[in-house]
Each structure stands twice: as structure tokens, then as C-alpha cells.
Design brief:
Order of helices and strands: HHHEEHHHHEEHHH
CATH superfamily: Outer membrane efflux proteins (OEP)
Strand order of the largest sheet: 1-2-3-4
Number of strands: 4
Largest sheet: 4 strands, antiparallel
Structural class: alpha+beta
CATH topology: Outer membrane efflux proteins (OEP)
Distance between the termini: 11 Å
Length: 420
């Protein structure tokens, strides 16, 4: 079993770059993240499952064989001479588990605990993904609300300018109605954005009470992912809990196959018995040995275990392919999101500059209000798109870092396994 543990530890070992996790200012602190993740229902369930597997390990080590006590009492009647005797006997019998079976059972118990550790890590990983998604979902709604507030403030100022020109006779009453309508529409959008932000904040705080939601969160600054796809795929393969679970499942079926092969030789049962016969005139002490005769069921069980091992091997290969594909998709999404953010920032700056120029031209009487409102609407759309692109680029990179266990501390399970 020690060789198996060493192999598993080497296969899924944490490299040096993951020893110190990142602590970006635009994400919650590591201490609160760790507390939040460990308090999720899925992680608590996975932690409780460790106790289940530990008990199962003790059960396998102890074995399912128990000592049987048998008591018999009888009356003997002889015809010649005509006598009656009270007789009784007692016996103790216990099956003996063969040494190789005991060794395999011990390895199965250890392997179950090991797999439970990987399942705990997988629960932490999935909870981390959900936390990251909830955090950025709230950031997205928060900054969209701020952007709509900026739009309302700008349209309020625009309405003030129009009202001033209407009083001076430089603009028609229709311009004021247009400005009021644009402001009302923006105020409605602000109210909807505020509701979405409140819902996102409530979901985040309800699911992760340990996370302190800041009043003024830091707007993330996207960073490019410079390493190539193969590097990220290798890192992900080294740290993926789903793959560790699949590999551990393959090992379990391999042990079950060995156990079924060992069961082809039945376990003997030994016993001691003592009898008191003919009313105490005869004392009998004996030893018994029982050896079951194997039937076809044992061979069928072995064949079933061999087939199950093949199924586990194919599933593990399927998980490997899935992880490589998902990592490639995440890497491509990260690259695309960063490029999209840069383009959206340029578009936002250009449309905002255009809106400012149109506003200044209206003040000078060189353009109509319709042109100003259209320019402001286009600038608002570009600004919202820039916010979404910025957050999408940052989230995609953090997701890639999380999947390689370089972002948040979700490696406690591997550390525990390595100590065994």
C-alpha cells in the first residue's frame, strides 16, 4: 500500500508554484475564502464522508468473519439396559481470512480514505468555481448600476441645459420633452440594474456568509495569459480532482479484481468443541476444519471484477480527454476575452469622446438634441460592454488559475494524503 500511496502522491503532487497562492486585491482575502469554502454544504458533506470511509477502513481491517458459539443439549435413551442420559456439547467456530485477502482488504480501506480526500478536494474546487462566479456576477451588476447612475447624472445635466435654452428661446419645447423622456428611460434602467445588483449581493452573502462584501469594490484589471496551452493543460492535469478520483476508482477496481481472484481459494473455518455424553461418563474434546468447495459463482465474480476494471480504465481515459478539452476551451476563452476587452475599451473611449463633442456642439448650437441623445446612448452601450468585457477577461483568467490550484487554497486534501 505504501508503494501505491507514493505513486498517487507523485502523480498528483502539488508543484512549487502553487505553494504560495495569489491574493489579488479585487478578490476576497484568502482567509475569508478558505472559511467560506469550507462552510459550504458540499464541502461539509465531503468532510463527513471522510468519517464514513475511515469507518469502512476499520471494518475492512477487522474483516467480516466472526466467532460462532454453538450449544446443544440432548437426551440419550438406551434399550439394553433401559437407561436415559442427559448430554450436551459446546463448540466455537471461526472462519480464517487468508493472509493475502487480509492485505488486500487493508489496501481497499486505505484506498477508500484516499479517494475520500480527493472527493473533498473536488468539492472545494467546485465550491471555489461557484464562489468565483457569484463574486463576478455581483461585480458585474454593481458596476453596471454605477454606469447607469453616471448616465442618469449626465442626462440630468443635459436636461438642465435644454431647459435653460428653452427659457432663453434658443430651443423648442420638443427638445425638453425628448430630454425628459431619455432621462426617464435611464432612470428605469438604473432601477432595474439596482435590483439586479441587490439580488446578486444577497445571493453572494447568503451562500458565503464569511465573505465580507466591500462597499466600494476594486474594478479588476485584466492581465494577459502568456504561457502556452500545453503548459496550462499540464498544470491542470496535475491538479485535477476529477482525474484523481477517476484514477483512484481504477485503483479500487484493480484491488477488487485481486480480491476476487483471491476468493477463488475459499477461507477455511476452524473450531473447537467439547461434549459431555452418557450423563458425564464420557468427555469428548475435538477440533474441526471446514473448507468450502468453490462453485461457479466465484469465477463469475472474478470475471465481473475484471470487466468493471476495464470500465473504470475507459472512464479514466474519458476524464483525461474531457479535462484537456475543457482546459483548451478555457485557455482560448481567456485569450479571446482579453482581446475583446482591449477592443471594447477603445470603442468605449471613442464613443464617449464623440458624445462629449456632440454635447459641446449642442451647447454651441451646432447640432440637434437628437444627435446628442443618440451619441449618449451609443456611449452608454459601449461603456456597459467595456465593463462586461473587462470583468469577463478577469474572470476567465482567474478561472484558469483556480483550475491549476494557484489562486485559492483548495489543496488541503492532497496535503493530507501526502502525509500518510
Amino acid at each position: 500500500m505504501k508503494k501505491l500511496i507514493v505513486l498517487m502522491t507523485a502523480l498528483f503532487a502539488v508543484p512549487g508554484y502553487a505553494d504560495s497562492y495569489l491574493s489579488p486585491p479585487d478578490l476576497p482575502p484568502l482567509a475569508t475564502v478558505s472559511m467560506a469554502l469550507n462552510n459550504t454544504p458540499t464541502v461539509r458533506a465531503a468532510t463527513a464522508n471522510l468519517g464514513v470511509e475511515a469507518a469502512n477502513r476499520d471494518r475492512l481491517r477487522a474483516g467480516g468473519y466472526e466467532t460462532s458459539l454453538r450449544l446443544n443439549s440432548q437426551q440419550r435413551h438406551t434399550l439394553v439396559p433401559d437407561n436415559r442420559y442427559h448430554e450436551w456439547d459446546v463448540s466455537l467456530e471461526r472462519p480464517l481470512r487468508l493472509p493475502n485477502k487480509s492485505r488486500i482488504d487493508n489496501e481497499l480501506g486505505d484506498q477508500g480514505v484516499e479517494q475520500a480526500h480527493y472527493m473533498l478536494g473536488d468539492a472545494l474546487h467546485e465550491s471555489g468555481r461557484m464562489l468565483l462566479a457569484s463574486w463576478f456576477g455581483w461585480l458585474r451588476e454593481y458596476y453596471q448600476t454605477r454606469q447607469w447612475q453616471t448616465q442618469v447624472d449626465g442626462l440630468t445635466e443635459q436636461l438642465r441645459i435644454v431647459q435653460k435654452r428653452v427659457k432663453a428661446g434658443d430651443a423648442a419645447k420638443l427638445d425638453q420633452l425628448q430630454a425628459e423622456a431619455a432621462l426617464s428611460q435611464a432612470q428605469a434602467q438604473l432601477a432595474e440594474a439596482g435590483l439586479r445588483a441587490a439580488i446578486a449581493r444577497n445571493e453572494l452573502s447568503s451562500r458565503y456568509p464569511a465573505i465580507v462584501i466591500p462597499v466600494n469594490p476594486i474594478l479588476p484589471q485584466p492581465e494577459p495569459v502568456t504561457d502556452g496551452l500545453e503548459v496550462w493543460q499540464q498544470r491542470t492535469m496535475e491538479h485535477n480532482h476529477e482525474l484523481a478520483i477517476a484514477h483512484s476508482e481504477t485503483q479500487r477496481y484493480s484491488l477488487l479484481l485481486s480480491r476476487s481472484e483471491a476468493d477463488r481459494i475459499p477461507d477455511p473455518s476452524v473450531g473447537l468443541h467439547y461434549a459431555d455424553e452418557r450423563g458425564g461418563e464420557e468427555k469428548v474434546v475435538g477440533v474441526s476444519l471446514t473448507i468450502p468447495l468453490p462453485g461457479g459463482g466465484r469465477k463469475a465474480s472474478q470475471q465481473m471484477a475484471a470487466a468493471s476494471q476495464l470500465v473504470a480504465l475507459e472512464r479514466e481515459q474519458g476524464v483525461r480527454t474531457k479535462i484537456r478539452t475543457e482546459t483548451a476551451n478555457s485557455w482560448l476563452a481567456t485569450q479571446s476575452a482579453y482581446s475583446a476587452w482591449q477592443a471594447s475599451e477603445n470603442a468605449s473611449a471613442a464613443t464617449r469622446k464623440q458624445a462629449d463633442l456632440m454635447t459641446r456642439a449642442y451647447q454651441l448650437g451646432e447640432s440637434g438634441l437628437t444627435d446628442v441623445l443618440n451619441a449618449r446612448r451609443m456611449a452608454q452601450e459601449a461603456d456597459l460592454n467595456a465593463i462586461n468585457s473587462r470583468l469577463a477577461a478577469a474572470q476567465a483568467r482567474y478561472r484558469l488559475l483556480l483550475d491549476t490550484h494557484a489562486l485559492w487554497p483548495i489543496d488541503a486534501d492532497e496535503d493530507e494524503v501526502a502525509k500518510k
